[in-house]
Write a structure and sequence with these properties.
4-stranded mixed sheet; 3-stranded antiparallel sheet; alpha+beta; chromatin binding; elongated; Ig-like_TAF2; RNA polymerase II general transcription initiation factor activity; TAF2
């Protein structure tokens, strides 16, 4: 799995693994486990992209088409069986007997089910192409680029982020750099979300991520407060008291998170001071944010870090 997981290998031009990816019966158990996890992530990303009600409409459309195709095939099979029985009865007169010897068996006419048409096959046997067609039919959106990036190719977004608060302009100067050299990474150009937890609440900024290195100025909605105490509103609406003794008195920023909703499959390294990780671990109500803080604090061994971890445990 050095190169990542491919959900749809139909467009691969070279072999990435030692086993064949065309069937789930041929891949390794570890690859299959990661395959299932990535499948769930991609469906979740699609849900965030389309919205839950729209995705439910798509799934309902898939079930309806599959049910209609199944009924059509079954009714066609029943008609063929009736026709076969009728023809067999017309060829025999009343009173005729069937002689059976020890060397012969009564002839049977098993009904062979008809071959599925291309339409029925696409409705019953779901593929990337038919799934994309149904989404286009229901929503009017073409997700070709989305599927090409996340289903037909391997890799994830690997990114490094650092920022600086500009007090005069009251903005966070964010710098992002994608890692395009390491194995298993991909070049992502699309929307990305950054959450700034400020003194006056959590604020979301969405912009388009560009290739390679880019900079972005994110305006702050809060002003720095030096002597005024107030409960701080979190992203989930809770209001909590925080110990702000170690924060920069000129900055309203408490911590920063990139892609907090996991809209893309990523590995993001954020360079921020240890006290921001401390506040994030102690007060962020998102368990993913707390895990992110725990992973980052392994590089900040100090009595303060030990105290915060002890309180969480």
């Amino acid at each position: 799995m050095r190169y990542g997981i491919v959900l749809d290998p139909s467009k691969l031009t070279s072999k990435l693994t030692y086993f064949d990816l065309s069937s789930s019966h041929l891949i390794s158990p570890d690859y299959l486990s990661a395959y299932k996890k990535k499948s769930h992530l991609v469906i979740r990303m699609l849900e965030l992209r389309l919205g839950q009600p729209v995705l439910l409409q798509v799934l309902n459309k898939l079930l309806v088409l599959a049910r209609l195709s199944t009924k059509s095939i079954l009714s066609s099979t029943d008609r063929n069986q009736s026709l076969s029985v009728g023809l067999d009865g017309c060829g025999r007169n009343e009173g005729d007997s069937v002689s059976v010897t020890s060397n012969t068996q009564p002839q049977q006419n098993p009904t062979v089910p008809p071959c599925m048409s291309d339409e029925h096959r696409a409705n019953i046997l779901l593929s990337t192409t038919s799934f994309r067609r149904i989404i286009s039919m229901v929503t009017g959106q073409d997700i070709r680029n989305f599927l090409n990036q996340w289903a037909c190719h391997a890799g994830h977004v690997r990114m490094f982020a650092k920022f600086h608060f500009n007090r005069k302009r009251n903005v966070v100067e964010l710098e992002l750099k994608q890692d395009l050299q390491s194995r298993g990474t991909l070049n992502y150009t699309g929307p990305i979300t950054v959450m700034l937890q400020e003194l006056d609440g959590a604020f979301i900024h969405t912009f388009k991520l560009e290739e390679g290195r880019m900079s972005r100025d994110l305006p702050c909605h809060s002003k720095s407060r030096k002597h005024r105490k107030k409960k701080i509103s979190l992203a989930n609406g809770d209001e909590v008291d925080m110990d702000l003794a170690r924060i920069d008195p000129e900055s309203p920023l408490l911590w920063l998170r990139i892609d907090p909703d996991l809209a893309i499959i990523h590995d993001i390294h954020v360079d921020q001071p240890d006290f921001m990780w401390h506040l994030m671990l102690a007060h962020d109500r998102d368990c993913l944010g707390q895990l992110e803080a725990v992973n980052a604090l392994k590089d900040f061994a100090s009595p303060e870090t030990r105290h915060v971890l002890s309180n969480i445990i």
